[in-house]
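testing teh design pipeline on a random one, pls ignore if ur not involved
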């Protein structure tokens, strides 16, 4: 029962496998924020075989970025819809991934905090191999780090866990390459807006307490 933030809009960024989903789950639990992950939105479209899902499936599986012209309006509409359901803060995971996305978001829902998880690539490659997800909720597991209570089943619903198509080595490599080629200008963008906060480390259990302490302080000042 920490502070209940209103009117805060936080984006969380970081390389693939840096723990955005893992850390977000803890933030949402401790600070009762609304949460949206662009990757979860896309994976659910793919799994439900919507027209959009069919169109983007090969792009996501290959580890490439979905065109902003398709994604940005969808994410911004989802944010507006979710925000209208409750008077509380908001956490966005996986968006923006380009300066044009950041600029658009700045016009519609300007973030008052941009968290960057700075985790070395060597650490990441090993984690992704043993990741399993519960697709409908986006809950994330890891066979070594946080295994489900029952093998292959989601802790909350008991439904089956799956591996992500883009977690095969070639796609992970592509995702890391793309990340490296697009992120610097986005970090620069948020630095200039004076909302960037970087957390570095190799373990979520060490990074999260730092994020938590920072957020407790930050939210008091809002
Ligand atoms: P996503 O879904 O945004 P990525 O690649 O940015 O995907 P990903 O893979 O979801 O990021 P994460 O959320 O940062 O990683 O990490 P995580 O899932 O929490 O942790 C990774 C694993 O490590 C898990 O198994 C976890 O349990 C474990 N773990 C966590 N902490 C630790 C630790 O301390 N120790 C250990 N040992 N393990 C740990 O985007 C996917 C695709 O969607 C499209 C693109 O195609 C993208 O590739 N997309 C977009 N396209 C265009 N624009 C956008 N804005 C887009 N957003 C998504
Ligand atoms: Mg994720």
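output:
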């Amino acid at each position: 029962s920490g502070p209940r933030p209103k009117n805060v809009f936080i984006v969380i960024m970081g390389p693939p496998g840096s723990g955005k989903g893992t850390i977000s789950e803890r933030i949402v639990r401790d600070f009762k924020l609304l949460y949206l992950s662009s990757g979860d939105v896309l994976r659910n479209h793919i799994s439900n075989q919507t027209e959009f899902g069919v169109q983007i499936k090969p792009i996501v599986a290959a580890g490439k970025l979905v065109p902003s012209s398709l994604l940005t309006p969808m994410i911004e509409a989802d944010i507006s819809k979710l925000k209208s359901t409750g008077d509380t803060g908001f956490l966005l995971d996986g968006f923006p991934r380009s300066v044009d996305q950041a600029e658009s978001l700045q016009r519609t829902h300007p973030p008052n905090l941009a968290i960057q998880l700075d985790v070395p690539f060597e650490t990441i490659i090993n984690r992704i191999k043993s990741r399993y997800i519960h697709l409908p909720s986006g809950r994330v597991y890891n066979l070594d780090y946080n295994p489900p209570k029952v093998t292959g089943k989601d802790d909350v619903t008991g439904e089956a866990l799956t591996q992500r198509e883009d977690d095969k080595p070639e796609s992970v490599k592509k995702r890391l390459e793309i990340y490296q080629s697009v992120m610097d200008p986005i970090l620069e963008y948020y630095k200039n807006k004076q909302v960037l906060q970087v957390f570095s480390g190799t373990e979520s259990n060490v990074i999260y307490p730092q994020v938590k302490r920072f957020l407790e302080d930050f939210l008091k000042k809002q």
